[in-house]
Amino acid sequence: MRYLTPLEMMYRWEKEKPNQLYLSQPIEGIWHNWTYQETMLQVRKMASYIKSLNLEKQSKIAILSKNCAHWIMTDLAIMMSGHVSVPLYPNLSADTLKKILIHSGSKLLFVGKLDDFNKMKGGIPKEMDCITYPFYSEDYPKWNDLLEGVSPLEESIVRNDNELATIIYTSGTTGDPKGVMHKFYNFGFATTNAVQALSLNEESFFSYLPLCHIAERLLVEMGSIYSGGKVYFAESLETFTSNLSEASPTVFLGVPRIWTKFQQGILSKLPQKKLNILLSIPLISSLIKKKIQKGLGLSRANNIFTGAAPTPSPLINWFATLGVIIQEAYAMTENTCYSHVSFKNNIKIGSVGQALPFCEVKLSEENEILIKHDALMDGYYKDEEQTSQTIKDGWLFTGDEGEIDQKGFLTITGRVKDIFKTSKGKYVAPSPIEMKISSNKNIEQVCVVGNGLPQPIALITLSEIGSNKEKSDLISSLTDTLQIVNLKLDSHERIHRVVVLHEEWTIENSLLTPTLKIKRKSIEKIYKENYVFWYDSEHEIFFTNEK
Question: Which CATH number characterizes residue 483's domain?
Fold first, then answer.
């Protein structure tokens, strides 16, 4: 079966509903809007300009920007001009930026909305041509100036299904980022089937997770294109809440840390005890739920997803009591973000849902999750060895460990490579234990370690709630959680010590990926020399003196 490409879908909306809003972006508090026709005029002009540069066919063109309207316009213009997009995380170090630009062989770079471009600028090769966006202009030729007097590309160019569309560099939880190659067919297959399975039609999306990541790229950019919908952007972290409330999307994706932040925000205004009382009163309960949903900006949301990392079941259940039904999903860059999803009317808490149509799934002898469908990556760019280790006999070896029940619900039980061995010779999978520990609202982040120790220990950082608690109350809460969790674990898995760290794990200090997953190896590298000392401490809850 042939699927329409993203460009073909945009040509359709350009003709059928030219005056419908497509992109809406707040800039200094003022919303700027582009209809489908206005968007495509910009796309056609930029495609015409890129073609005038006479780059070699299918040259790599990189995008370095936080989410904004011109990010999507650029991606479409690169497609229309016959080239390959290389989206980049907007918070890369100069060294990583340089590695990716050189490795990909990028010939042109679009520089847009960034927090601290000066820290990254040194990673751009001096001979590389750059174009900068309106509203966020750096010292490069500006988008609007370049397009002045340029005639839009009139031809509605259709890219071949098997042509390379993009190289997406993974966020690198381990080692250097790898360039995942996807052709146009993969976008068409994954998005068309996902949109149909989820019954998406003219949806509104809220874009704030990095568009260079496969989840945001597929759900928001491609989802809006294939459903004929619209996209609203967040302006900044400070305006995130108000922007989301104003946008009031029908589809929303939140990573686990976002849901934790939402919960903390609600509880700071409405403590749990008072919330329980209000929810127990029928008429008041309905009003409270509606008020909270509206305050979050989710009163219109029909599909509310979580993914990228495990979301604790107690957190999902907590939001369910407020009428916010969170659907877990699971996929990877390597399978075009097309694998498993929880449908709103068929949720099994703790699982990531069932396989999407035309997606085969099975477990290896080691319980590694294997995926097969028609939109698996074409491989890692310039890395045949890694490609051959990841795709074998048509199956994608995900590296994730899982369980599948009789109804096809998949539960992630850990990472195959994250498993470590204690000094007693016992193997421990940290992820399921971390999920149990993170149910404590005082905890922001947790990493279970213990390679070479008699028993595992848990490294944690505190949430805002935890940081504001009296130390004695905090110790009591963490001790209770430790006892409850350990009762559910096998003897060799039981946590011997909880270590409360003062340094938060962030993207900026390279302990979180841009999608807010912990970088386990980086965390271990910093703290490993302290493990034995912490383990031998007489305190069950140990507070470090790091600042």
Answer: 3.30.300.30
